[in-house]
Amino acid sequence: MLDARGLSCPEPVVMIRKAMMTKDAEYTIVVDNPTAKENVTRYAEHQGYTVTVTEANDEYTLTITK
After folding, report:
1. What DSSP string runs through 4-48?
2. What is the CATH number of the domain that holds 9?
3. How far, in whole angstroms, is CA 30 from its chain's centroid?
4. What range defines the domain where residue 42 resides?
5. Which of 15, 16, 42, 56 is the most buried (most CB within 10 A)?
6. Domain count, the chain
């Protein structure tokens, strides 16, 4: 699981991009702002992944699957 809380864009996108180099089937990243949620979601979808978002306590957990 990647923890991108407290980071502003583009850092969360850079983190998920680096993680995706492993070609795993699933990734999880936690962000704490809507802009990062949208940007990471957009990037993952452009890479052919499906993104499921759950929100709790002003944090977003993005589960990214192939």
Report:
1. -TTPPTTHHHHHHHHHHTT--SEEEEEESSHHHHHHHHHHHHHTT
2. 3.30.110.40
3. 7
4. 2-65
5. 16
6. 1
